[in-house]
Every structure is written in C-alpha cells, then in structure tokens.
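dumping this here before i forget
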Amino acid sequence: MLAILFSYFSAQYGNIDWHVRSGKFILALILFRIAWGFVGGQHARFASFLSGPGAAIGYLCALLRGSAKRYFGHNPLGAWSAVAMLLVVLVQGVTGLFATDDIATDGPLRYLVSGATSSRLTTIHRYGINVLMALVALHLVAIAFYLVVKRDNLARAMVTGKKTLAPGDAAPAPGPQGSSLVAALLFAVALALVFGLLAAFGR
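structure:
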C-alpha cells in the first residue's frame, strides 16, 4: 500500500521517473502475490479464503448485526476486496507500460502498440487510479474499523502473517506453512522478470 501511495504522489507532483520505477516495483509485487496465492501459507492461498458472493453478502449482514464470525485469515468480504485490489493494481501496472503523456514520457512498451491503443490504455491508466485510491481508502477504513470496534489488529496480521488468538477462539486447523525462503526467492524472481524483461524489451 505504501508503494501505491508513493507511485500516486510521485505522479501528482510530476516526478515521472520515480513513478515509472515504483510502477515496475509494484508490478513485481503483484506477480509475487499472485504466485504466493498458490504456494504460500494456509491463509495466503486463494483456495483457502475465496468463496462465493453469497458468503460475502452473508458476512456483511452478520457484520451489520454484530454477529460476524472471526476469521484467522481473510473474511469472505475482505477476500473479495483484496482480490479487487490485486486486479486493479495489475491493470494499472500493465496499462502503465503502454501509456504516454504525449509530451516527454512514454511507458517502456509504448512502442509496441499503435497510437490509438496507447491512448485507450492511457485513459484506463489515468482513470483507474481513482478506482485504486478508493479501494486503498476502503482498506484503511476497514483496518481502522476492525482495530477500534472489533479489537482485531489486521495490520499486524498483514505484516507478520500471524494473528493472536482471542479469548474463546479455537486454534485454527493446521494447514500449509509458508516458507520465508520460498517467499524471498519468488519475490527475487518477480523482480528479475519485470526489471529484466523491461530492460531487454523496453525503451
């Protein structure tokens, strides 16, 4: 989230070089997170937290009634919010590769598409940031709500990957454990792919 905010403000204040660099870094982060969603720890895997829309609506109704179940990973509503953010950030990163400001800065792969295609992708990139910032704000509000109202520190769990058991909680069922070494290797591969391929084929 900090990288997204840095990328946003670097563009707002005209530092396009840093905006492009941070965009590449964010794209690598997204590729890593997608891969981690298949080989990571139990609560990081998409298969462990994605459920149908009915489950998300049911959770929202229970939350409004004050009877929502506590989850050790993503709750059904938060899961879809996280996926939405992943998809929007991915779209922002990819469209940015082909975007242009029609003045001095082109995305590194702008030369691969026509002017009309670049214009369309630039429009998606320009307006997509509004959707992304709305999702960031929603995440921050949700984190604050769970911390203050539910006494559930989601931010700490996001950083450490661990959540403290509350009184009365049953221990979660054992599942796959994420490896720090695998995570580091995956992130290194993602960085190498993004920066290496763009160095080879970008302009």
